[in-house]
Amino acid sequence: MLEKAFHLLTGCVRLEITGDAARFLTVCAKGGIELWGFHREGELHTAWAKPGDYRKLRPLRRRCGVTLRLGKKRGLPFQTVRLKRRKGMAAGVVFGVILYSFLSGFVWGVSVTGSERLTDAEILKAAKSAGVFVGVKKNSFRPRASALKILREEEELSWVSVNTDGCFVEVAVKENEEKPEVLDDHALSNIVASRAGKILAIEAHHGRPEVSPGEVVEEGQLLISGLYPQKVDPYGPQPETPMVTLGAARGKVTAETYREFAVQVSQEVSEERPTGKRQVNRALLLFGWRIPLGFHTVPQGKTRLCREETPLRLLDRELPLALEREEYEFLETETHSLSQEEVKERALLRLREAQRAVLPAGSRIREEELSYSFSQRICILSAKCRCEEEIGCQQPVVVK
Questions:
Q1: What is the DSSP secondary structure assignment for residue 230, as one 8-state letter?
Q2: How many whole angstroms separate alpha carbon 290 and alpha carbon 288?
Q3: What pLDDT digit, counting tens, does each position of 50-67 carry?
Q4: Among 33, 68, 144, 248, fewest CB within 10 Å belongs to which?
Q5: 58 part of a folded domain
Q6: 129 occurs within a structural domain
């Protein structure tokens, strides 16, 4: 194996011998000329020799009366001669090596792993501000320092690691775990009504209920007491000093409440609609550099922009080469009047938005009375609602 590799590096030629080959090979051996790879095909004998020994074989050929021809040529010296004749191919090889060495010094792609709540776009934006992005030189940033910068910028992350794999960078993250709400059971507090209503259900987890289902309460009325004395059995022994329970009231109070809502919607509506005219700009994205393909202009006036990037992939890897397409759709403002049915639908949608914004989570509307009125091309929707909602709110107790 080593001998074969040596012959390929130094070069070798194949000799084709016709005539008294036995005498010729014997004379070559006595003359110190190294031959190997002997083979016979009928009257034709072949052998391999070094390129420099071929000239030494000419006088021996005449002495032995054989016909000697040069066959195949193998090895690095002959390949080098061929490349010298094809200067374009040699220049292409040199240029390819230089281009590969140059491009391998840049980051070809950045990926994100481990994100759940945060989007990849948010993390990539933080990574770009930390100096990690497609097209940056690999020796221009330090992975550990960049990870610390990303960690400082994104407060929802608890751990960040920037890993390099050749020309690609992986940003591995771990998000903060949501901390449970810590309740202070030592602080004295009561639960009072946040608004008036009729009690539907009451659950006292800690404390004593002061109202019962079916009772009507006012705003600020005590519902669950966290500070209360012990109830004494009238038929048992009477203590000199009744025991007093102190703590934080915990519980849930559901009540039926009354609310009124009112929203307004105009019949005159201004909407932006496409005119049908479009403008398309194309560009080539190479290592973060944007190369316009054609005349790139930003249109004036009201437009809607749709941008699309199509990256090129190789072996399931995104290359730092992509085609960008920007399409501008021209818009115009049109004012038109809505019918009464359309205005009512919009008013109802706005009413639902107002109800969701005001009512606590988990509430529902039990009964609803809607009334529409029109005045000066404005629709006014009024709603009288009976709601089922949580009315208990924590109120601290100050002891002097």
A1: P
A2: 6
A3: 777 777 777 777 778 787
A4: 144
A5: yes
A6: yes
